[in-house]
């Protein structure tokens, strides 16, 4: 591969306090994953918000970079970091795909539009977040 895919690292947590360094841990995991995959990290953003609203400053910064053609890949810890609502998250993944961006997760690989897989993943991660 001559040209590295340009990656954006996006992190999100729900809790107002980051007592365990969750954002820092997500970010480092995604940077390591980008290196492993041969992606060049060109930007990053984070949000401290729930996943029901897509009106988040960090997600908007990514969207602006994607719509400008400056990003090829979105890296997230897991699909639930994009959003908690399955239908909205699928719609978001479809919209970024239309501008040439593919989402990846170190836990799930390339994020697909499979409704069944996405529902299973979101239920699984929601249960993990509850623990």
Characterization of this structure:
The chain is an alpha/beta fold. It has a single domain (6-130), classed as Resolvase, N-terminal catalytic domain (Rossmann fold, 3-Layer(aba) Sandwich), CATH 3.40.50. The chain is 43% helix and 20% strand. It is built from four helices and five strands. Strand 4 (102-105) and strand 5 form a beta hairpin. It is globular.
Structural features:
131 residues, alpha/beta, Rossmann fold, five-stranded mixed beta sheet, 20% strand, globular
Task: Please sum up the structure shown.
With 131 residues, the protein is of the alpha/beta class. Helices cover 43% and strands 20% of the residues.
Q: What overall form do the CA principal axes indicate?
A: globular
* Overall CATH class: Alpha Beta
C-alpha Rg (nearest Å): 14 Å
Oligomeric category: single chain
- CATH-derived topology: Rossmann fold
| Unreliable residue stretches | none
Spell out the CATH superfamily: Resolvase, N-terminal catalytic domain
Q: What structural class do helix, strand and pairing data support?
A: alpha/beta
- Proportion of helical residues: 40-55%
Q: What does the main sheet amount to?
A: 5 strands, mixed
The proportion of residues in beta strands is: 15-25%
Total beta-strand segments = 5
List the secondary-structure elements in sequence, H or E: EHEHEHEEH
**Named CATH architecture:** 3-Layer(aba) Sandwich
Strand numbers in spatial order across the main sheet: 2-1-3-4-5
Q: What do the pLDDT scores average to? A: 87
Distance between the termini: 41 Å
């Amino acid at each position: 591969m001559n040209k590295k895919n340009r990656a954006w690292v996006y992190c999100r947590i729900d809790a107002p306090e980051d007592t365990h360094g969750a954002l820092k841990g997500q970010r480092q995991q995604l940077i390591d994953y980008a290196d492993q995959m041969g992606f060049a990290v060109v930007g990053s953003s984070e949000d401290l918000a729930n996943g029901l609203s897509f009106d988040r400053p960090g997600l908007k910064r990514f969207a602006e970079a994607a719509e400008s053609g400056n990003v090829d890949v979105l890296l997230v810890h897991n699909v639930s970091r994009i959003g908690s609502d399955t239908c909205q998250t699928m719609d978001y993944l479809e919209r970024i795909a239309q501008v040439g961006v593919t989402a990846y997760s170190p836990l799930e690989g390339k994020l697909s539009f499979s409704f069944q897989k996405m529902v299973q993943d979101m239920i699984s991660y929601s249960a993990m977040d509850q623990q």
